[in-house]
Fold each of these.
Amino acid sequence: MRVSVVENILGANEQIAAANRELFSEKGVFAVNVMAGPGAGKTSLIERTIEAVREQVRIAVIDGDLASTIDADRIARLGIPAVQINTGGACHLDANMVRSALDQLPLGETDLLFLENVGNLVCPTGFALGANLKMMISSTAEGDDKPYKYPGMFSAVDVLVLNKVDLLPLLDFDVGYFRRGVEALNPDLAFFAVSCKTGEGIYAWTEWLLAERARRK
Amino acid sequence: MRVSVVENILGANEQIAAANRELFSEKGVFAVNVMAGPGAGKTSLIERTIEAVREQVRIAVIDGDLASTIDADRIARLGIPAVQINTGGACHLDANMVRSALDQLPLGETDLLFLENVGNLVCPTGFALGANLKMMISSTAEGDDKPYKYPGMFSAVDVLVLNKVDLLPLLDFDVGYFRRGVEALNPDLAFFAVSCKTGEGIYAWTEWLLAERARRK
């Protein structure tokens, strides 16, 4: 009985995610589900990406957090359409939350849509949003053992961005150990090392993202 | 119907948590539920605390992670009894996981027990473990806006340790903004700023912990 309840919930989410995906396809929107632990730099990477590609594509952002409008306010300050979802207690976005937010965005004038998930390395992977691309951001400050401890997230995504590489000289972070852990889980994963603070590595990431959008849509 | 299923699960957890609490009381164990986002420094703070107080109290550790034995191995290398719980997919420890692990520890010879939760700033607050003290660790590298985005965790704990203060000169982290967010949620919270890397602040934290143990037990 309990299992069937859970199956119904996930089944409903999958259906709404499929409807979101269809809407994205119809409108020519390339949607990216951005996942990471708290404070790894999801909003910062979205800001850097906006700066880099806003002349080439029209961007919109949906920000998910338990509370506050901090992230959507940051994006709106750049003149980019942004909607904040407050999940209350929920530890992840789901397809229906995204669907509700889509009504408030000019989808017909959007080429690239970021769905910034709640900061959490576990729960978001269980809930499809209908995105075209699933990405995760790791922070060097989180330590090099994260692929070994959170294999589900590292296995579930198409691209991994390692942020805060400007801190590497101060940290005991073994990049080889980190990457071996990632490759064992997900050998085809695209990988970029960046610093949202200094801008290092951002160009390689945004060029790949634009190419991937052109290839997948 | 769905709500009643959830209530049953939480009810069962509360009952087992109460039994754990009773067992801790009977054995003279002071148990600490250690919560934080991924990579904030839970294991590092436990290691530093072991170094500082192992002459005064007998310590044991239960480490929760989705996968791997990395954390329990680190603790065991210090000669401290440690049990690793692998939750599989679960995003938090629960009282029954802890109970199962307790059988493998010498509780009669333990004064201080750390229950290191899964790295997650949302889900662990919903599941009591029977601990005497609930603590959370924030990392400066996560950013100063975390109290505003994850109010549930900051409201639920007795003590907050801000780790990685050695990185502050490199970060845009406003300690006043962070602390104002915390104080609005939880004005009675004990607060310590430390660096597990340099050892800064560790003495104040461990002195408080030992005093709190003496006061509460």
Amino acid sequence: MRKVYITGFGQTRVQEHWDRSARDLATSSVLEALERAEVEGADAIYVGNALGGELTGQEDMAALVADFAGLAGTEAVRVEAAGGSGGAAVRLGYMAVASGLHDVVIVAGVEKMSDLAGPAVEEALATSTDEEYEGVQGLSPVALSALLMRRYMHEYDCERKDFASFSINSHQNAVNNEYAMFRRPITAQAFENARLVADPISLLDSAPTADGAATVVLCSVGVAGGRTRAAVEIIASASATDAVALHDRGNPLFLRAAYESARGAYAQAGVAPEQIDLFEPHDAFAILSALSLEACGFASEGRGVRLAMEGEIGLEGSIPICTMGGLKGRGYPVGAVGVYQIVEVCQQLLGEAGANQVEARLGMAQSIGGTGATAVTHILKGPK
Amino acid sequence: MRKVYITGFGQTRVQEHWDRSARDLATSSVLEALERAEVEGADAIYVGNALGGELTGQEDMAALVADFAGLAGTEAVRVEAAGGSGGAAVRLGYMAVASGLHDVVIVAGVEKMSDLAGPAVEEALATSTDEEYEGVQGLSPVALSALLMRRYMHEYDCERKDFASFSINSHQNAVNNEYAMFRRPITAQAFENARLVADPISLLDSAPTADGAATVVLCSVGVAGGRTRAAVEIIASASATDAVALHDRGNPLFLRAAYESARGAYAQAGVAPEQIDLFEPHDAFAILSALSLEACGFASEGRGVRLAMEGEIGLEGSIPICTMGGLKGRGYPVGAVGVYQIVEVCQQLLGEAGANQVEARLGMAQSIGGTGATAVTHILKGPK
């Protein structure tokens, strides 16, 4: 397999873009990424999008984005794995370049969510559950995560307020990210007083759905040439699945797909968790951050929340997470977030993270679909 | 790139499966394919599915299928390109094996459409159009194809009844296919008298939406070993796009994506159209068959309909098409048909096509999304 470099990236601010459509958001992030990569086209365009059909009535989003980015004709396909769609698209791009099939690939993630109101969005999000056993009972993603959180609190003897550190960290990091939705800090008191969405998950514990698009351009060394010296390299890519329904899992607090994909990525990169300098988890809810930290080996079983409480997930901590705000602070355009994560790891590894800059050579991003049904893990290496 | 063999395949009958869900249909085709391939698992599962979110409330279908096929944990992702989803999934499987990334890959296509009634299905199908410019005006796929057909009739001086040969051929070939939905022949008279759906397209010119799943198992030579001597090889795989909206195309009667992907496939295989022994086009409507025959070089511009009228698309003709019934006769479970096409080409190349057997060494399948927005073309070589 060949080396794969990220030579360009682009992103729109995450917010409710009332005046912009999915094609518009995606196209502007693609054009920004192409400009930075200094290429005019690509051999293929892979688009991560989770809910285009349900929320905007638009399928075949990849052909549409190719067309409006001025690249009609180019091979294009959409990849979907619920909230893990963005990561899955990056993996497909990685496969295409690493294999030698393509030299330049565009990977875009996009979601347009504000055209529909609350209940319709929640219904769309529930398509990531096992519809016939969970969704049909009203078990939406937030409800399933609430079940996991309560079980965690029971098993490991902690309280709702102990999860506050995750949201506080994400909001704090979003303050300095111009692409983030919520650029304001929150306090432990505010977290504790926040309105419950699905007990014990509150409003300040739930990543906000919104509109946005992010893009990376992947190149082989042949195309990137001398620019590889200043580029980020994808040194590992791995994907795994778990039973979709929580009741089909042996231990619901063990995110098997997250564990397996992280294990695969560590093996490919030849590194251990201790060598990872920052980690972008799928923090749709704080409980998922805690379980991901454990599954990926950054905390032992039942210690994920404690790691956060001890400040180790902050920019100065042993494993900084959500360094540009994460899903909670930057916002959660579902099928796009896996690509936002990769863009943000690039910013960190290139020293472009501004006030949020961490000292980093290796960064990891994990994109998750459903309540851990699909997990895609990438490890990136900076030019330093 | 390594050689890629199809060592197993499976399919359910296409019909309205009132008692079976998408997961059930997909799983049974996967298990059948694994048994034939004599493998127990795979390195990855790629699922082509177009409308699971809209029609069944189920996204992340690939993780679900992996789980219920007893393969939870395995890498799995869903690929979507509207009606071209199945072909796009086969291409992803091809990429993974050809590149050396994976040795055994399962590619399944599945669609469950009978849970919702007519208008909801038509609305779901319309997500393959450019929603903001076409779908919103009520331009569903059948309406767009009707525009193309009328333009074709005008440009090339032919009539509605001249298209009858396509449907007659498909229905005739479906009679002997036990997996087909409509196992009865139709007459030219019946075609002429059929109720109009979107003038000039009639009921007997429209492929019936239905439920079904098909699967192929792709292997590298290392795994297939000596069995490659009796296996079908994928000798070319290519994909291309066009503007999604018809009004964005220079000449709407030229299916650019079909042309480009066929050209790419011919180049990769090192063959010319004359060497292809059978062709499975995306015959959602007869006009699409005619335009595909022209785009792929089997007929010159404006001669596709004439080719059919002259009997050249029949089993004894110069280029047999829809040899097991095509979308019109076998049925049209949207995201699955691209995989059904590959299964049927395998049946032909292995001498397992029963009464429909044609003399064939090279077969081609073309999977199309939207009204030609995405096209994925594969050329397969039999063991003879």
